[in-house]
Design a protein that fits this description.
Elements lengths: L30 E5 L18 E3 L15 E9 L3 E10 L16 E7 L7 E7 L10 E6 L13 E7 L2 E9 L12 E11 L5 E6 L13 E6 L9 E6 L5 E8 L6 E5 L4 E6 L1 E3 L2 E8 L11 E5 L5 E3 L5 H9 L4 E4 L2 E2 L6 E4 L2 H8 L3 E7 L5 E2 L6 E10 L6 E9 L28 H6 L1 H18 L1 H14 L10 H17 L1 H4 L8 E2 L9 E2 L11 H16 L3 E7 L2 E8 L1 E2 L2 E2 L6 E2 L4 H14 L27 H5 L16 H6 L16 H14 L3 H13 L5 E2 L6 E3 L1 H12 L3 E2 L2 E2 L3 H7 L2 E2 L1 H4 L6 E2 L4 E2 L15 E3 L6 E5 L4 E7 L6 H14 L2
């Protein structure tokens, strides 16, 4: 899910993916020997284990981070007997917060096991255990999710688990029966396992420690360790965890280990030689070290990397088969800028990577060739007059294919290079988030100091921040309109300007010359539209509204998070109310809230309009519309369908506001793992938005306005991007939901046909991920019926989308129902109240 922030200035070009491309302990192909242990009773008493078992003495998160022992520490041992796999886990914790949602015990303290017939097998399950240490939940609870492909032929899942309290936490002893997977245990049999441990403190911040440090194991059972049943255990390397950070142009390995290893020497090795070494130093209850060594030469690799600590088995590190792949990934994160981007005079400034040393490490010796365009899209050699200019910068590396970056420039009407920033008073009237704890009185009293800070951030952004330069250019152009400027139009105008230039450069203006028209008049009778009515008019049982009032009032009082609700059945709005206080004021039904990833449903609806008119097919390769992807050899072409189903191999929520996003990603296209796995991201939607712009000639914000929001009457909705940047009200979102419920129509308008609507619905992604996948996803839609916590009481055909803001959007075709709740965050006790909310709705049918 995307994390939402609002700032005055974007100070990093790729703020959504800032940071390193990191590795933890790698995809180990070793099978670890697990000893046979007879005489073990599942009673919570560790005495019958003695010193036996395969030991894991340190768990870390996906980036190799650990907590100090007193805060959260997990050690466990593994064994087996004729009945099943044995686990003895000792967990040290200082605060206990557990989930009240039985199906999502991972939302609180506890331990999880993913167990498979073998590593990578389609036969696997997920067992969650909450220890019962919370005062509200005093007994151990367990819940098992069944991902077994052959579940109908196997026995019902079960596990045995016992918890006892210890001085500093608790101990859990578990038996994972062989019968769950139809295994007949024998020496040499291999099974798959991942162990996860969750810690939630009072602030509800989650720490997730992993044994096999990759997440989303429920989607891919190859993200487990292979365990081999044996008489004696293998030597265990799991007294340490390592993380690789390559963000600064070299390779920095950070090692965390148990405190007993303090003073030991740690060595990074390849198959052939030592690359670096360091001494583990004691840091409270951990031993830590950092080891730095350079990238290999261009076109070469180090091969297998490992961490060797004195007297311990080697710990494998994941490394790419080719470090050129790593270079390509890191290049997507490097800021490329003009120095400065806001300038005076006719001569254009020079451009380069902000961190030239990193660029040389990634590219070798490189050259830059730049072509400039004026505001009318004419190629120019000099900035003849003040205003906006564009630069198309071709970066030619020592080896490999050139890459391109697009940048905006602004020539000022007066000499900005001689401007005396230090002598200028620039009052900055802003409000700061209350979470900072800075009062308005303190800010007002120190307005001069704060204004100085803002002033120098503005000056700095004219040199290093391409997004700021883009904004300044748009503001300059708007200024020429005098007092007739449109509010908040500058960023939209700048994006639209770049759409025009790219359509010229890419030739898409000639391929798609006609204005896009949608929605179109409906044929036949108008489709249902939202209209007020009673619960009886909506076919709901008498008393449903009163019950909903009670659950929502309790929800608002207990969660301290305001929200608004909209329920419509058969087109009849029978519930439309707001609850709670936001920013000291009563919440209203017209108060916009953050819709987060429900934005993905909206942006996918735009793409389906293009599909409906035959301009795009879901099976079309991306390079049909975006020329930067052409002529690149790849294992599997990236298609439009991949973009919206998270099977694209992309990462993070970023790219919408980059004028050259397709250029940035094209450099990584040869390594993009298209169709290899389902990995949730917003970048696919962002790349899809570039296709919408290339075909329609309209920037994404204008396309939303002209073809979705205005036609539906969504007057309280503001959308900034394609994956997570929208604010709206429940009625506006319900209009979109009703349009989908109507299979692409609303009133006298048809947005897309019923056949196109069917292509949008969730389906098993066998076409994209292969026949063994269990992933069900649609174009910006996911199931939200009986098996999904978003709407556990709705029909199997219900669909919608989740949100990081905990907003709810569900459409149920069977019950002719749309459910919308808008809010800005989850608040307290969300799962419990959500379950009761949907229960009342379902009981009202």
């Amino acid at each position: 899910m995307v994390v939402r922030t609002k700032t005055l200035f974007a100070v990093a070009m790729l703020c959504c993916i800032a940071g390193a491309w990191a590795y933890g302990a790698g995809e180990d192909t070793t099978a670890y020997d697990i000893p046979k242990l007879d005489g073990i009773r599942i009673d919570g008493n560790a005495s019958d284990w003695g010193e036996q078992g395969f030991r894991v003495d340190l768990m870390a998160d996906a980036e190799g981070n650990t907590r100090q022992e007193q805060d959260f520490n997990v050690r466990f041992r593994l064994g087996w007997n004729a009945k099943g796999l044995l686990v003895l886990a000792a967990i040290q914790d200082d605060v206990f917060v557990e989930s009240g949602n039985m199906k999502q015990l991972w939302e609180g303290d506890g331990i999880e096991f993913y167990a498979a017939l073998s590593k990578g097998s389609a036969e696997y399950y997920h067992a969650q255990i909450a220890p019962g240490m919370d005062n509200k939940c005093k007994k151990l609870r367990q819940y098992i999710e069944d991902y077994r492909k052959s579940k109908a032929e196997m026995k019902k899942l079960s596990i045995q688990a016992v918890r006892i309290k210890t001085e500093h936490g608790y101990l859990i002893e578990t038996l994972l029966p062989w019968s769950n997977l139809g295994i007949t245990p024998a020496m040499g049999t291999e099974v798959g396992l991942q162990v996860c441990a969750n810690d939630y403190d009072a602030d509800k911040i989650r720490t997730l420690l992993l044994w096999y440090p990759k997440t989303d194991t429920y989607q891919d059972s190859s993200r487990m360790y292979a365990l081999r049943l044996a008489e004696k255990p293998s030597p265990s390397p799991f007294q340490a965890a390592a993380h690789v950070d390559c963000s600064e142009g070299d390779i920095n390995v950070r090692i965390n280990a148990v405190k007993e290893l303090a003073g030991s020497k740690a060595v990074i090795r390849t198959n052939e030689r030592e690359l670096g070494a360091g001494t583990l130093m004691l840091n409270e209850t951990r031993a830590t070290a950092g080891i730095v060594f350079p990238f290999p030469a261009l076109g070469t690799t180090y091969g297998t990397l490992s961490v060797a600590i004195e007297g311990q088995p080697a710990l494998a590190l994941e490394a790419p088969e080719s470090f050129d792949e790593l270079r390509a990934k890191l290049l997507t994160e490097q800021n490329f800028c003009f120095a400065p981007g806001v300038f005076s005079g006719e001569e254009f400034p020079k451009c380069d990577f902000e961190k030239k040393g990193i660029a040389r490490a990634l590219l070798g010796a490189y050259t830059i060739k730049t072509t400039f365009y004026d505001n009318a899209y004419n190629e120019v050699k000099a900035a003849a007059s003040p205003g906006r200019y564009a630069a198309v910068c071709e970066i030619i590396p020592e080896k490999g294919q050139p890459i391109r970056r697009f940048r905006t420039l602004l020539r000022t009407p007066e000499a900005i290079d001689g401007f005396k920033w230090w002598r200028t008073d620039m009052p900055a009237a802003v409000s700061l988030p209350k979470e900072l704890g800075i009062s308005k009185a303190a800010l007002d009293a120190n307005q001069k100091a704060f204004s100085e800070y803002v002033k120098w951030r503005i000056e700095d952004s004219t040199w290093r921040d391409p997004m700021a330069v883009d904004l300044f250019a748009a503001l300059f152009e708007q200024s020429k309109a005098g007092t007739s400027v449109q509010p908040d139009y500058a960023p939209l105008e700048s994006r639209q300007w770049w759409v025009g230039l790219k359509r010229k450069l890419y030739g898409t203006a000639e391929l798609y010359p006609n204005p896009f028209i949608a929605p179109r008049p409906i044929e036949g009778a108008p489709a249902p539209v939202l209209h007020e009515g009673s619960e009886a008019d909506a076919g709901m049982k008498s008393g449903t509204v009163a019950k909903l009032d009670k659950v929502c009032e309790d929800w608002a009082a207990n969660s301290e998070e305001a929200f608004a609700v909209f329920l419509v059945r058969h087109g009849v709005v029978f519930y439309h109310k707001a609850f709670g206080m936001r920013d000291g004021k009563p919440m209203t039904v017209d108060t916009p809230s953050w819709m987060a990833s429900i934005t993905k449903t909206m942006s996918a609806s735009l793409m389906m309009m293009l599909v409906d008119q035959g301009l795009v097919s879901l099976d079309d390769p991306v390079d049909k519309f975006l020329p930067p992807f052409r002529g690149i050899t790849v294992e599997k072409p990236l298609t439009v369908h991949h973009l919206y189903t998270h099977t694209n191999g992309l990462w993070g929520h970023w790219g919408d506001d980059l004028n050259d996003f397709e250029e940035v990603l094209a450099g990584y296209y040869p390594y993009l793992p298209v169709g290899k796995q389902h990995m949730y991201n917003g970048a696919g939607n962002s790349l899809g938005s570039k296709i919408v712009e290339a075909v329609s000639g309209e920037s994404l914000p204008l396309f939303y306005k002209h073809h979705l929001l205005d036609p539906l009457g969504c007057t309280h909705t503001k959308v900034d991007d394609s994956s997570g940047g929208s604010d709206s009200t429940p009625m506006d979102i319900a209009r979109i939901g009703q349009m989908l419920l109507n299979k692409g129509a609303y009133g006298d308008k048809r947005f897309f046909s019923e056949d196109t609507y069917k292509q949008m619905l969730p389906q098993k992604l066998t076409q994209l991920l292969g026949p063994d996948t269990s992933i069900v996803w649609g174009m910006g839609l996911i199931p939200c019926g009986k098996e999904n916590p978003e709407g556990p009481n709705l029909s199997d055909e219900a669909f919608g989308h989740g949100a990081a803001s905990a907003a709810i959007f569900c459409v149920d075709p069977v019950n002719d129902l749309v459910v919308v709740m808008t809010r800005d965050s989850m608040g307290k006790a969300y799962p419990e109240h959500r379950a009761q909310f949907f229960k009342i709705i379902a009981e009202g049918f």
